[in-house]
Design goal:
The protein has 13 helices and 14 strands. The protein is an alpha+beta fold and about 400 residues long. The protein folds into two domains: about 180 residues, no CATH class; about 120 residues, no CATH class. It has a six-stranded mixed β-barrel with strand order 5-6-11-8-10-9. The chain has a two-stranded antiparallel sheet with strand order 2-3. Helix 2 packs across helix 11. The longest helix has about 45 residues. The protein is elongated, with a radius of gyration of 34 Å.
């Protein structure tokens, strides 16, 4: 019996008991659909974390004023000495692993421009902040050194602010009013998207930090030029842990913190936090896929059971085929093809259902998903292997029947 004849014979056997074949395929269908959906959800979660890492920038350490302890009572961040622009300068100059250290302060307020107004974040910083965050300028320019030193009335704006104030018009050289201060837009920031907290990073107006301190805060930074945070970018190839420890030691020295006392600041390695989230997403994807894969194994067991029943029911047919010249390998091929056909048809239906489930998850649950050809190929290939693995024993049992005994079977 050639392969084509074996396929035709297997197809006739399957269609003769269509309902039983469908029920047999059900485990494979559910398993393949579950595997594809779980992989798509997990890959989407991993992709979201990776997008957040790209939006954050690489090798980022964030230094913020931290709470202190006095008499066993934890005081707020404002009770500590705070951070200053000089601290940022010292970190950039004295820590060899550091590429840039950008001081920053933030507030919020109403801005007016282009006949519209908008409430947004007001951010005071330097050009080093854009380097730390890997944030390019889409059009225009950054701050000049004289503008940062001289409290110049200039600003960089994000894509959301540009859209809300000016629509499709070019915002460069337009004058906007930040609270009560008129400033000229000199640069439009590239699109950044949402951060890990779901906040729109493009909804921002950036001013030179001296402008923010002297004109927005009204000199609230004081003689020490207090700031809200320092964004530190560690140079590529440098050890993040060494940089983090160096920053802590330097700031404790500058703030004259006594040995054993709490740090009056907080140093956070944001890249490590997001990498941990990414690793967690991948582990969860593997666990979910493993659970979904159990359905495929259950489906394979179902195929084996049905094929054993089929061998018993068709014992006389097998004996008749052997009596007229069919060889054992022909019987083996026929039953093995039946098992693989069940798996492949079930896998194809499962792929369609998995794609629909993935689409529904994205549309109605609002989750980020990512279905790839690799996941489809993996699920379909595994379903075929299940058919071969669990179909081999019944097929081998059928091929080893003795013709005389098979013909006498009632």
């Amino acid at each position: 019996m050639n392969t084509l004849a074996a396929i035709r014979s297997a197809w006739r056997a399957l269609t003769a008991n269509a309902l039983r074949s469908v029920l047999t395929m059900l485990g494979i269908i559910i398993g393949v659909a579950a595997v594809i959906t779980m992989i798509a959800i997990g890959a989407g979660a991993t992709q979201r974390v990776q997008d957040q890492m790209r939006a954050l920038g690489s090798n980022i350490i964030l230094v913020t004023p931290g709470s202190v302890t006095s008499g066993g009572v934890r005081l707020g961040a404002q009770a500590g000495q705070g951070l200053s622009e000089d601290d940022a300068t010292a970190i950039a100059l004295e820590i060899p692993e550091v590429q840039v250290a950008a001081p920053s302060s933030r507030s919020s307020g109403q801005i007016v421009g282009g006949g519209s107004n908008w409430a947004t974040q007001i951010f005071g910083t330097t050009n080093d902040y854009l380097i730390a965050r890997d944030w390019p300028i889409a059009s225009g320019r950054g701050f000049e050194a004289a503008e940062v030193q001289g409290s110049a009335k200039v600003a960089l704006i994000g894509q959301t602010v540009a859209r809300e104030l000016f629509g499709d018009a070019d915002p460069i050289d337009q004058v906007i009013r930040v609270r009560t201060v008129p400033v000229t837009v000199v640069g439009l920031l590239d699109r950044k998207g949402q951060n890990s907290f779901g906040q729109d990073q493009d909804d921002v107006v950036m001013l030179p930090i001296s402008t923010f301190r002297n004109r927005i805060q009204g000199g609230g930074g004081g003689r020490l030029k207090r700031i809200g945070a320092i964004s530190v970018k560690v140079a590529d190839g440098q050890n993040m842990s060494n940089a983090e420890q160096g920053i802590k030691d330097l700031l404790r020295q500058r703030m004259r913190v006594q040995p054993g006392a709490d740090d009056p600041f907080t140093v956070r390695n944001l890249t490590e936090i997001l990498q941990a989230q990414e690793a967690s997403s991948r582990i969860m994807t593997l666990l979910l896929s493993a659970v979904a894969g159990v359905s495929l194994v259950v489906g394979g067991i179902g195929i084996m059971n049905i094929m054993l029943v089929s061998v018993t029911e068709r014992t006389r047919e097998i004996g008749l085929r052997m009596a007229v010249g069919a060889r054992g390998k022909d019987i083996l091929a026929q039953f093995l093809i039946e098992a693989v056909t069940l798996s492949l048809i079930g896998g194809a239906i499962g792929v369609v259902l998995g794609a629909l489930a993935t689409w529904a998850t994205a549309q109605f649950a609002g989750w980020q998903v990512s279905m790839t050809l690799n996941s489809i190929g993996l699920a379909a290939g595994f379903s075929a292997l299940v058919g071969i693995f669990f179909g081999f024993y019944p097929a081998r049992r059928a091929s080893r029947l003795l013709p005389i005994q098979a013909l006498r079977h009632e």
